Amino acid sequence: MALIVHKYGGTSMGSIERIANVAKRVAKWMRAGHQVVVVPSAMSGETNRLLGLAKEINPEASPRELDQIASTGEQVSSGLLALALMREGIDAVSYAGWQVTVHTDSSFTKARIKSIESDKILKDLNAGRAVVVTGFQGVDPDGNITTLGRGGSDTSAVAMAAALKADECLIYTDVDGVHTTDPRVCEDARRLDKITFEEMLEMASLGSKVLQIRSVEFAGKYEVKTRVLSSLTDPLMPLDQEMKSGTLITFEEDSTMEAAVISGIAFACDEAKITVLGVPDRPGIAYQILGPIADANIDVDIIIQNQSVDGKTDFTFTVPRADYQKALDILKNSVQVYIEAKEISGDPEVSKVSVVGVGMRSHVGIASKMFHTLSAEDINILMISTSEIKISVVIDEKYMELAVRALHKAFELDQK
Q1: Is the distance from CB of 403 to CB of 353 less than 8 angstroms?
Q2: Over the chain (416 residues), what is each successive 10-residue block's mean pLDDT?
C-alpha cells in the first residue's frame, strides 16, 4: 500500500462528466489498496470568471478580497469531487485549505506555503477515506484566506505530498507528460519518459507551462517523487500501465540522460528588451538602473553590460512584456536624468529560446551548434545567457517558432 497524492487541473475538472471520470480514477487507486489525497483545481475558466466579476464591481479591488472570491472555485470543485467519489462507493471527505491547515504568509494573490498540518488528513486516510483538499489556497497568520497565484494547485499538491511523506505525487493534466518542446510549435516534439529536477526547473523558469516553477522547487527541495501524466486517458486503464505513463521527474541523472545531452527546447514569447545607452561606467550604476525597476516589483531576466568606451557603457536587460511600458516610464522619468544616460530604447517584440540538458556538463560544442543552427536560418541573436545546464538567446519574436523547430531538429530531439 502506498500513499499517493493526485492533482487534477482545471481542464480535468472542467465538467460534471470529467469530475466523474476523476472519481472513477481515484476509486481505482483506492480499490487497489492505496491511500489517496486529491488536490483539484477550480473548474476550467471558473477562477477567471470570479476575478472578472470582482474587477467589474471594483477595478481597484483589494488583493485580500480577490483571494476571498477566487478561493471559492477550488472549494466547489473539491465538494463536487467528494460527492462523485461517494457515488463510486468511496468514503470521501473534502477540506478547504484553511481547514487542514495550509499555513501561508500574508502575500495576497501570491502567497507562499510555510507549513501544512497533516494530522487530520492522516487520521482520515487511516480510516479508509479519500481526502480531497483544495489546491491554490491556504490561510495566513491572521486567519485570512490566501491564494498562491496561477498554477498554485501544482505547488499545493507537491507541498501536500512533502508534508505527508507521500510515495509519489501524480500531476494529472491535459497533456501526456513533459515534451522536448511544445507540440503546438513543433510537431516532432516527443514525450520524455524521464527528466531531472534541474532540467524541469530550468524548463519551467524558461517558459514551459507544464508545471508551475514553485512546484518544481518544492519537489526538488523535499525530494518528492513527481510524475506528470494525462487525465484524458481511460480512467479505468490498468493501474500498472498508468503508473508507468507520463514523465517521471527524477532526482539523479542516469546514463541514458547523459547520452541525451539536450533534453528540451524551452521558449518564452512574452519578453521585452530595454537598453540604457551612454551610461557612465562607475561603481553602483547597475543598482541605480535596476533598483527602481525592482522596487516596482518588475522581474529582470537577462542582463548585459557592454565594455566601457571613453568612460561610457550600454546596459541592456529583459523584462516581462506586460511590464515593458511601466519599466520604460520609470527609467525615462526617474532614472535617465539622475544617472546622466544618453538615451533609453526598447523592443517589446522579442522572444527567449533556450536549450536545456544536464548532458551539457560533460559535452562541449553545444553553444557552437546552437549558434550555427540559428545562423543557418538567418536568425540574429540579440542577447545570450548561460548556466551549467542551459543556454538562452533573445531573438526577434517573428523568428521564435522557426528557431525552436530548427534547434529541435539540430539536436535530434525527435529521435528517441
Answers
A1: yes
A2: 94 95 97 97 95 95 95 97 98 96 94 94 97 96 94 91 95 89 89 89 76 84 91 93 91 55 89 94 92 92 88 93 94 91 94 90 87 97 91 96 96 85
What is the C-alpha separation between 143 and 104, in angstroms, rounded? 10
CA distance 204 to 214: 9
Indicate whether this model's pTM tops 0.85: no
Residue 72 is which amino acid? Answer: T
Q: Which of 302, 308, 303, 306 is nearest to 280 (CA)?
A: 308
C-alpha span between 104 and 141 (Å, rounded):
7
> 30: how many CB neighbours lie within 10 A of its CB?
21
Q: What is the full DSSP assignment across 134-182?
A: -SSEEE-TTS-EEE--TTHHHHHHHHHHHHHT-SEEEEEESSSS-BSS-
Distance CA 9, CA 154 (A): 8
- Inter-helix orientation angle 213-222/197-205, to 10°: 160
Joined together, the cell numbers standing for residue 268 give: 518564452
Report residue 109 CA to chain centroid gap: 16
d(CA 133, CA 118): 11
What whole-number distance in Å separates Cα of residue 193 and Cα of residue 176?
Answer: 10
Q: Which of 316, 202, 304 is nearest to 249 (CA)?
A: 202
Q: What is d(CA 14, CA 20) in angstroms, rounded to the nearest whole number?
A: 11
Q: What is the pLDDT of residue 56?
A: 95
